[in-house]
Structure formats: C-alpha cells, structure tokens
Hints:
By secondary structure, the chain is an alpha/beta fold. It has 2 domains: 2-55, RecR Domain 1 (Helicase, Ruva Protein, domain 3, Orthogonal Bundle), CATH 1.10.8.420; 81-199, Dna Topoisomerase Vi A Subunit, Chain: A, domain 2 (3-Layer(aba) Sandwich), CATH 3.40.1360.10. The chain is 44% helix and 12% strand. The protein has helices spanning 7-16, 24-36, 39-55, 72-75, 90-99, 126-135, 149-162, 187-195; strands at 57-58, 65-66, 83-87, 105-108, 140-143, 168-171, 198-199. It has a 5-stranded mixed beta sheet. Strands 1-2 form a two-stranded antiparallel ribbon. Strand 3, helix 5 and strand 4 form a beta-alpha-beta unit.
Amino acid sequence: MSGHFAKPIVQLIRELSRFPGIGEKTATRLAFHILKSPREEALSLANSIIAVKEQIKLCSVCYHITDIDPCAICRDSHRERDIICVVEGPQDVASIEKTGEFKGRYHVLHGVLSPMDGVGPDDLRIDSLVKRVVDGDVKEVIVATNPKVEGETTALYIARLLKPFDVKVTRLAQGLPMGGELEYFDEATISKALEGRRVI
C-alpha cells in the first residue's frame, strides 16, 4: 500500500511500522497525521526522539533510565535506603511509583533469566544487585519480577544468591495473575501485592 506514496512518506511509514504493535495501516495513519500537523509539532516530535537517544542513560546505582546520574529516586534522601525493589524494566518502576506505596529504592535488571532466549545471569544487572546488598545496609530485597515462568526463575535465582547474606528476600503477593505484565496492572492491584509480599 505504501508504495503508492512519495518516497519520504514511504520511508516514514516504514520507520513507524517498526514500533511494536504498529502495522502498516496504523503507521500510514500516523505518517499522514505527522504530514498534516504544523511544522513545529513535527520538529518537536523529531527533537524528542533525538533527546531520548542522546540524553537518556542508566543510573549508575539502580540502572533505571535517567537524564541525571544518579537518578532522582536514588538521590532522594527521604527514600528508605534499606529496602530495594528488584524489577525487570524501567516501566515497572513507573507502575510501582504510581501506587505511592513504596518508599524504598529500586534495582532494574533489564530483563529476566531466559535460557531459551540465551539470557543468562551475566546479561542482567544481578551482580551489581549482590554488590549493593554486600556494600550497603540493606534489610530487605523485594523481587517484583513478572509472575511468569522466567520471572519466577529469576526470583528464585536471586533469592538463592542472597541467601548467605543477612537480608530478607520477599516476593510480591500472589494477587498478581500468572502470565501478566506488571506495567499493565492497576495501582490498587500493585498496592495489595506490595502489602502482601512474602519471603522466598
């Protein structure tokens, strides 16, 4: 379908259709929306994309995405330093923060153990989590990986690694459905899961 349009539009449709969940029809609609929008809006979109690629980095403490290192959460002196919540990705930090319930710090793994996909412990930020526990005064590590097979495997692996240290390792309560994604749960569900976390 996109072959009937001018070359720049075809290129834009091709680039937009690379995004997850966006097929050629949606990409075409978005391309024409951009084409019809004021030049300033299109430039603002382009500049936002460039800024994300050039300015966003990983926090050197928790590995959350940030434009200032360390990130705002790690710099916040009002956060509890002795509780770390381990999550799969940056989106999960946002989901938990929306609840307003968690006052500790985070550790972002950027994935889960998945031997089928060739993802092992060295591909994640697990070693740096252990180092934070060893170096800091951490009392509890909440493993908030998604309730899927890979998430459970990762949680058990982390619990086993941290067993020799004087730290309580807990898991979010099973109010979260198996096979779900943390970023799609509502605030109330996540709040209840945080309240009912269990030792693993």
